[in-house]
């Protein structure tokens, strides 16, 4: 196959259909950017979930009698709860924190950020509690045996909040994928129209080439390459757009949130890993769509 001829004809086709080529590049760029963004959001969601679950605890708050009198979980009521939890294989560790220790921890957390709240909160407002780390933070079943014990005032499962936040991020990701799918569908129709138009303009030349023995692959190759190049240019635009959006908009906007470790930081390398792969898939799909279109449109 004469590759020089194929590339020349492909670039001539792009120039001949410049308006449609630009439309395809823009549509493809938006579609690939949305697909890549959805994948990156999935990575952030997974990393954030792992970050929270790695440090999440379940707090079993004890009743007023234990909170007021027990300093080291030596009472029978407290030991019953602790021993029940420790006997479950799904529990990694159980740590008792007295009322005074809970208040000291409260002051440590909010003393600088919300001093008014600290001043208005007395030690008696905080209960003694057992802080439980689970082997699988997403499975709260090891807590079921102690939930209904009379000396247990409340079971606070912090993992529930993590699951809710992760669900919100997943919903945003899914919405991004839906929009990306619609954009991809538009790009597929544009590819089909562009290939048909290019083949129509070169129908006489293709007929002569087939008459002198040129293979179908050789006559189709410029159109397939034309579609693939358009999507490749769109992929380059999408990659640069996602990278600029992350580094110039998202990272500065979420800088304090990253510092507070509320959301896992996405490294720049993730963009340069995901987007080229997404673009490569887009190029392969474009070539396939172009080939199928030619098979349907060019019968001979």
TrEMBL record:
<keyword id="KW-0131">Cell cycle</keyword>
<dbReference type="InterPro" id="IPR004513">
    <property type="entry name" value="FtsX"/>
</dbReference>
<feature type="transmembrane region" description="Helical">
    <location>
        <begin position="177"/>
        <end position="200"/>
    </location>
</feature>
<keyword id="KW-0132">Cell division</keyword>
<dbReference type="Pfam" id="PF18075">
    <property type="entry name" value="FtsX_ECD"/>
</dbReference>
<protein>
    <recommendedName>
        <fullName>Cell division protein FtsX</fullName>
    </recommendedName>
</protein>
<dbReference type="InterPro" id="IPR040690">
    <property type="entry name" value="FtsX_ECD"/>
</dbReference>
<dbReference type="GO" id="GO:0005886">
    <property type="term" value="C:plasma membrane"/>
</dbReference>
<comment type="similarity">
    <text>Belongs to the ABC-4 integral membrane protein family. FtsX subfamily.</text>
</comment>
<comment type="function">
    <text>Part of the ABC transporter FtsEX involved in cellular division.</text>
</comment>
<feature type="transmembrane region" description="Helical">
    <location>
        <begin position="277"/>
        <end position="298"/>
    </location>
</feature>
<keyword id="KW-0812">Transmembrane</keyword>
<dbReference type="InterPro" id="IPR003838">
    <property type="entry name" value="ABC3_permease_C"/>
</dbReference>
<dbReference type="GO" id="GO:0051301">
    <property type="term" value="P:cell division"/>
</dbReference>
<dbReference type="InterPro" id="IPR047929">
    <property type="entry name" value="FtsX_actino"/>
</dbReference>
<dbReference type="Pfam" id="PF02687">
    <property type="entry name" value="FtsX"/>
</dbReference>
<feature type="transmembrane region" description="Helical">
    <location>
        <begin position="21"/>
        <end position="41"/>
    </location>
</feature>
<feature type="transmembrane region" description="Helical">
    <location>
        <begin position="221"/>
        <end position="244"/>
    </location>
</feature>
<keyword id="KW-0472">Membrane</keyword>
<keyword id="KW-1003">Cell membrane</keyword>
<feature type="domain" description="ABC3 transporter permease C-terminal">
    <location>
        <begin position="178"/>
        <end position="291"/>
    </location>
</feature>
<feature type="domain" description="FtsX extracellular">
    <location>
        <begin position="56"/>
        <end position="162"/>
    </location>
</feature>
<comment type="subunit">
    <text>Forms a membrane-associated complex with FtsE.</text>
</comment>
<keyword id="KW-1133">Transmembrane helix</keyword>
